[in-house]
Amino acid sequence: MSAFEDLMGFARDTAALGQVAGRLGWDQETMMPRGAADQRSDEMAAMEKMLHARRTDPKVGEWLAAIEPGTLDEVGQAQLREIRRSFDRASKVPADLAVEIAKVTSKAQGQWAQARADEDVPAFLPVLEQVVALKRQEGQALADGGDVYDAMIDDYEPNMTAAELAAMFGAMRPRLVALREAVLAAEAPQRLKGHFDPAKQMQLTEKLALAFGYDLHHGRIDKAVHPFSSGSGHDVRITTRTSELDPFNCFYSTIHEVGHACYEQNVDDAYLLTPIGSGVSMGVHESQSRIYENQLGRSAPFSGWVYGQMREAFGDFGIDSAEEFYRTVNRVNDGYIRTEADEVQYNLHVMLRFDLERALMQGDLAVKDLEAAWNDRFHADFGYAVDKPSNGCLQDVHWSVGLFGYFPTYSLGNVYAGCLNKALRQAVPDLDAQLAGGDTSAATGWLKENLQRHGGLYAPRDVVRRASGLEPSAEPLLDYLEEKFKGIYGL
Fold first, then answer.
1. Could you tell me if 55 and 21 are in contact, meaning their C-beta atoms sit under 8 angstroms apart?
2. Contact, 251 vs 206, CB < 8 A?
3. CB within 10 Å: which end of the chain, N or C, has fewer?
4. 471 is catalytic
5. Domain residue spans of the chain
6. CATH label, 162-488, candidates 3.40.50.10490, 2.40.160.20, 1.10.1370.30, 2.60.120.10
């Protein structure tokens, strides 16, 4: 066998073990008994020790040195690029640090969930202090004297920097704030009222998932504190949550996670369990979840179909027409929770987190001061005070599990989705007529063909550029938001 074949066999085994580790994380957030937390922490640490050893195995370096990239086709070169990137990054992080991060973040996730339930920030801060210290060490190892936070962003969006993101956010903020102010000054649509049986929500959730092409033969839907998607290839699982007073939380969280899951399910099977067998970056991943949730799921025609499904499931709930339902679905609300935020304000939530975690990682903000900094910033950005920690700095799971650098990819995903939506609308001119019947197949099929099937074959901005024909920028997103919400609010 050639060095490339040996390397790919080794990489496939490593990817398979990584999927097993991911399944442990899925179980921890869905079905694991609470009393198993300490043992699970040790299990996760053991898995990370083995994975880190494989990712830094000297044999990988020897195989990489022995392979002439020019002898490989486009797919082979992409595989080599991703293996080299993983090897170089993993080799910079000491094994004992990688294991300690896995162990501490596993414990921290459970402590965060309990602190969130108890509205008890002080109970969470000691373990968060550990996570932040460990992640700083990792960032310093990866940065080679450069910007620590840039090194962390690179884990989720290769070749993106904090400076580029800050410039993008700076350009987006004025138009978003102006749109929000205009919308909030106008007459608001009615709110959803009533009680909605959680069991019926879950039944409709499955129907929505299937409508967007989620393959339940290779997936499943469960409940968790924080909705998420995990896995790749032939085992891709999602979670959601229910609220008796707010079924939109359940339905649109589900559609969002289905966007992630379908991306993973639709990657070319030839790449299964290889370095390019998953979504290429979290920004591109978020583009899929956001376009499914918003440009498709919250569109007037598709929300009209959802209205019919809800009337069938719940009877009369006080909204008399599909048109008014569309306005309610897209109501711009005061609120605290990022995952429940309307499209106008969502990116402002992300900008808050971006600035705070950048300050944490660069040592400009102490963990003990995080809650006060969050509350001050939230009041400045949104004009009202945080009422409780679960609506403030305890609302997201990300920091407890060490995902520093992840948050900005949510807004980057919105930007990418804006570009993709513009191209999709041009490619499928009768899309609205199809969505009105609950048929998303033309849209999801276009996304599969033009983006999802490629997995990690192309670099993040390159795959968006190829699919949309546009240089990625925030303009299409901002134009879409202004047209949509000015129409809804009669501006």
1. no
2. no
3. N
4. no
5. 3-146, 162-488
6. 1.10.1370.30
Q: How many CA atoms lie within 13 A of 158 on its CB side?
A: 15
Choose among 414, 336, 464: nearest CA to 169.
Answer: 414
Angle at 385 between CA 383 and CA 391, to 5 degrees: 115
Active-site annotation holder among 29, 48, 82, 257 = 257
Ranges in the chain, pLDDT < 50: none
The C-alpha atoms of residue 391 and residue 372 are separated, in whole angstroms, by: 13
- The predicted-structure confidence for 261-277, as pLDDT tens digits, reads as follows 999 999 999 999 999 99
Q: What is the pLDDT of residue 204?
A: 97
Give the chain's end-to-end CA distance (angstroms, integer).
Answer: 66
pLDDT recorded at residue 339: 83
The verdict on pTM exceeding 0.90 is: yes
At 199, list the tokens: 């069991």
